[in-house]
Structure formats: C-alpha cells, structure tokens
Amino acid sequence: MIDTKDRILDAAERLFAENGYSATSLRRIMNDAGVNVASVHYYFHSKEVLLEAVLLRRAEAANHERLEMLARFEQEAPDGRVTVEKVLEAFLVPTLRMAADPARGGHVFLRLMGRLHAESDLLPGIILVQFRPVLLRFAEALARALPDLSPAELYFRARLAMGATAQVFRDSSYRKWAQGGAGGSFDWQPVLGRLVSYLSAGFRAPVVDLVREQETR
Amino acid sequence: MIDTKDRILDAAERLFAENGYSATSLRRIMNDAGVNVASVHYYFHSKEVLLEAVLLRRAEAANHERLEMLARFEQEAPDGRVTVEKVLEAFLVPTLRMAADPARGGHVFLRLMGRLHAESDLLPGIILVQFRPVLLRFAEALARALPDLSPAELYFRARLAMGATAQVFRDSSYRKWAQGGAGGSFDWQPVLGRLVSYLSAGFRAPVVDLVREQETR
DNA sequence: GTCTATAACTTGATAGAC
DNA sequence: GTCTATCAAGTTATAGAC
Fold it and tell me: What is the rounded distance in angstroms from the CA atom of residue A149 to the CA atom of residue A85?
C-alpha cells in the first residue's frame, strides 16, 4: 500500500498537469487519490503548498543532475568552454531521463512543468529559489559558448528556447520520437537529438538588426 | 462613451491575459469594466462564450491578413514556392501589427493568445474552426519550402516554433526590441527580424536521426 | 437595457469526534 | 491519522422589477 501523502502528490501532479492549477479543485484531487477530503490540509496545509510539494519532490534531483552534467562537460573540454550543444544536453538529459522513468513522474511531470511555465505567476517563491541558481549557471555557460551574442540577444533566444521546449513537453509531441526503446520502453535519444539540433541552430542564427540596416540605407 | 459590450470585452481580454481563464471570475471582469454583474449574461450568455467573443473580435481580421500576405508572396515568387522566411513573415506580421495597434488589443491580446496556447483544452470549438484552415494553409506552404523534411519532422518543428513564439508573446519579452519607433511608438521590424532569424534557422537545422546512427554503428 | 436579489452550487479551509 | 460535518466565501447563472 502506497503512502497517503504520495497518493495525494501523485493525483495532484496528474490533475494539475492535465487541467492546470486553478481549474483543479482539491476535492477532485482527493477523490482521484481515494483519500479523505480533509487529508490534504492535514499533510500540506493549503493548495499552494501542495503545488510546491509536487514540484519539489522532482525538481531537486533533476537540477542536481543538470549541474553535475554541465560541470563534467566543462572538465572534459580542453579550455573549459563547452559548445551550445553540450550546454543544451546537460540541461535536457536529466529532464528526458525523468520522462523515461515512471517512478520519477514520467511524462506527467514534464507536462506539468510545461504548463506552469505558461502560468508563470503561479510558480511559488520556493521554486524560484530552487531553479534560479541553475538557470544562472546555465546562462553563464551559454554566454561563454556564444561570445558574439549580446546579453540581451542571448536572453531573448533563451526565452524562445524555453518556450519551444515547454511546448513540446506540454503537448507530449516529443513522445512519438521515443518509441524505439527495447520492449516499447522510452528511448529519449531521438528526442534529445532533435531538440538540440533545433535549439542550437536557433542560438547560432545570424543576428539581424533591422534598425541598423535601416539607418545605413 | 464606449459601448458596454466593448467595455466587457476589453476587461475580459485584459484579465484573461493577465491571470488566465480559470483564475478570472466574471465578477472581477464586471467590476473592472464598471458594469453590472448581470450584463455579461445578457450579452454573452456564459463565461465560455465570452472568451470566444474576446478571441473572435481580433482573430478574424488577423487570419485574413495572414492568408492574403502568404498569397501575395506566392504570386511574387517565380515558381510559387516561397522561402521559410517569407512563410514565417506572412504569419507573424499581422500578429505584430496587432501588437502595435492599441485599437486592436495591442500587446494584451498577444499575451492572451500566448496563454491560451498553453491551456489548449480551453480553446473553444469555434476558434478551432477559425484557425484550422489558416494553419493547414501555412503547413502546406512550409512543406513546399522545406521539401527535405518529412511531415512528422515538420510538424515537430512547427510545434517548437509555435511554442517559442507563444512564449515571447506571453511574457512580452519581445517588447524591448520594439521601442525604436518614432515618438516612442511600437516598431515591430526588429522583433520580426529576430523571430524569423531564430525560427528559420531551427526549421533549416540538420535532421539528426540518432536511431539510424545507432543501427549503423 | 440595466439593475437588485437570489438561487444553486463549488470552492478552500477548519473543528472536533473517533 | 482519519473521518464527518460544516463554515464562510466565492462561483456561475437566472428571475423579475424598473
């Protein structure tokens, strides 16, 4: 028998991912989890804290993996400067490993993260604390991999990249590329290859400054 | 004095864009619009129909512009085959013209569209009818511009492109590039250039098929 | 067309028995 | 720890006076 706390977290993760935070009521979560309606307040105090708990359960390990992988790539690189492709790989591989592992939320957690990325005002403060250092670290590595991009250009393209990634995680359109695993298991290599190819091409695209072009006309 | 119906639509557009559909109550909309709480049911019958009305008010004109622009580009091309850049331009320019025009919702409507793209289950049937022919038409043009991509690869990259675009419209990070207009007005050319450069590079990126690579190893 | 009043229901959250 | 019962507030939506 699974722990009550985990059953609530599982049901909340699934329903928040499927219908969004605001549209999901605690009663629906309790019903799906098969526990009493009062349990959630006993274990989590409020709906917002429940969302935090859902996220924290998965995010910490993935973020740790991301930082570790990036550090390893930098050690392996001769001058400590890794390519865009490697930075993207270090960020995405832990994510895709989660999607491949039902015990770590599988594709459901990815879908939730993709959704919350759009309802950014929902992301609680604690989660920001959990993600900010990772994002800063990766932004720094990206800047070193792309020295020709100004900080503003880099930030703009990073937003585009995050939006693109969040979209395919949200609508699960990445899953069609991941059927090739042995015994029907999740093989994330084709997805990784496609994402990295697309995103790195975007990061490397020529900078068009139409304003300057207009001035020199 | 503005029409009551329009005041409701304006307030709904703004609040749906800012807080999302589920998290916004009709009472809050009526309060912001400064009209009676019963008006919305008199004019729109229900919350869902109100959302439909908010979208239909803007989408029809923009979609018409998109199709017209694409048709013009195809006529101008020698063999009727336009580049990816031109297809993207035909899709994005009407959008950015809306963002530049406060009378057509300005950046607020773009933000709303970006949000709804994430809560895709909310997009009502009528809106799908309104958008589907446009999307099919553009998919067809994209396929002709990128004959080397399989339909599955093209669809995947189109999702990535939509996600990237929706993200920058949602968080308004595109607005910083649009301050150059005369008298502080919105100049969408720099935004268009940056979006097209990024997205077309993604569409043209090499296709990596790791599965095949593994087989030939 | 605009308003008040209210129906009918759902929401997050709590108190207190067991 | 788990349950029932319930609260107080907020929700969409409607009926009917003016």
Answer: 16
